[in-house]
Amino acid sequence: MIEVKLKCFSQVKYALGTDEMTFELEDGITCSELETIVRQTTEGKLKDIDLRIAINQEYVKDDTELKDGDEVVLIPPVQGG
Amino acid sequence: MIITPKELQNWIDNDLSFTAVDIREDAQIKDCPILGVDHVVAKVKSIPETNNKLVLMCQFGIVTEGIIIENRLLDTFSLLGGIEAWNAFYSDKRDMSRWSRQTILQEVGLEGQKKLMDSNVIIVGMGGLGCPVAQSLIACGIRKLRIIDGDAVELSNLHRQPLYGIEDIGKMKVHTAKKRLQNLSKKALIEPVHSYLDEKNGSDLIKGATVVIDATDNISTRKLIDKLCKRSNTPMIYGALYRYEGQVAILNVNGSVGYSELFPVDSSVADNCSEAGILGMLPGIIGNIQALETVKLILDIKPNLVGKLLLYDGMNHTTQTIKL
């Protein structure tokens, strides 16, 4: 098992109701699989929102494998100005 | 009291009687002698007594201001920006003493100030982000600024768009903004464009820009700015807001990541400020970060946000800087 920390911003933060969450996950899990878990947790509140993924302050591809201790950010586009 | 290089030149031109005193250490005097003004050299404790007005000069005008306040000296002036500013003025008649508090920064200096003054900045959108960006850039010495917006001022704008007042409701934002900004700098060349940026006018409107500021409130215009900047190899300072949060990045610098790579998939996005709600301070914070990054980019001050995305959360003041 690995433990990763999710930092939440914008729509992700409001959908989850928190700005930080910790997940215990199976070894070998990828970013996109974590994203799916997050989306399921939010009961459709993130439907149709494309999220970019960063691990440890760096953009990564969806199929990047997560490691124990990683800090993940799911980044939604925002448009206000 | 303070005297600017230009005012001192007027004294000289009008033969006004004064005594200029260079209070610097010998090494500084040797490295940077005063040009074109008769003066005496004296240590702080032995400043000559005179019936003339005294003009105290140090390297940057900071030490002399302190001496005058501390000793409550009457009829004594501190040269704003110091000998650095005076010599620059003497050489090319540009009085940059107004910016002495920023030219004293090693990363800015007088050469940096000249770069800022010679830059050509374009702001797309004169709403919540555009107002603070424009104010800060004009205040810091940007001389050429084109502001683009087709909106008129509305009552609901006023809590977050401090360039506009009650009496401006119904007036075009760009014309009102120009009027307010000219109060900060009469010499700034501010060109108001009362129109929305679109495919038809876009190329012409961003032509010649040193940098384009994205201060829009919608993703389609943001994508258009990105496309135009990419095509013309012009840096774009991206900024966007959501409730208590903001995002800032410098995009399209010599092939660096653009908005289309930052968010490549069209998706249903968060509401804009009118729908999601916003406190007026947030655009002030994010707009000023955009202005700061603009200055850093022009002056090549690093680290900056080229190839990085800053996420700011104003609720608990956390940030993330993501490498793109």
List the helices and strands and how they pair.
The complex is a heterodimer of chains A (81) and B (324).
Chain A: E1 2-8, H1 10-16, E2 20-25, H2 31-41, E3 52-55, E4 58-59, E5 71-75
Parallel strand pairs in A: 1-5
Antiparallel strand pairs in A: 1-2, 3-4, 3-5
Chain B: E1 2-3, H1 5-13, E2 18-22, H2 26-31, E3 40-41, E4 53-57, H3 63-70, E5 76-79, H4 82-92, H5 100-103, H6 109-118, E6 120-124, H7 130-139, E7 144-148, H8 173-184, E8 189-193, H9 202-206, E9 211-214, H10 219-232, E10 236-242, E11 245-251, H11 259-262, H12 273-276, H13 281-298, E12 308-313, E13 318-323
Parallel strand pairs in B: 1-5, 2-3, 2-4, 4-5, 6-7, 6-9, 7-8, 9-10
Antiparallel strand pairs in B: 10-11, 11-12, 12-13
Helix pairs in contact in B: 7-13
What does this structure look like?
The complex is a heterodimer of chains A (81) and B (324). Chain A is built from two helices and five strands, in the order βαβαβββ. Chain A is of the alpha+beta class and 81 residues long. Chain A has one domain: Ubiquitin-like (UB roll) (Roll). Chain A has a five-stranded mixed β-sheet. In chain A, a hairpin with a 2-residue loop joins strand 3 and strand 4 (58-59). Chain A is globular. Chain A starts with a strand and ends in a 6-residue tail after the last strand. Chain B is an alpha/beta fold. Helices cover 35% and strands 19% of the residues of chain B. Chain B has an eight-stranded mixed β-sheet with strand order 8-7-6-9-10-11-12-13, with helices on both faces. In chain B, strands 1-5-4-2-3 form a five-stranded parallel β-sheet. In chain B, helix 7 (130-139) packs across helix 13 (281-298). The longest helix of chain B has 18 residues, at 281-298. At the A-B interface, helix 1 and strand 4 of A face strand 10, strand 11, strand 12 and strand 13 of B.
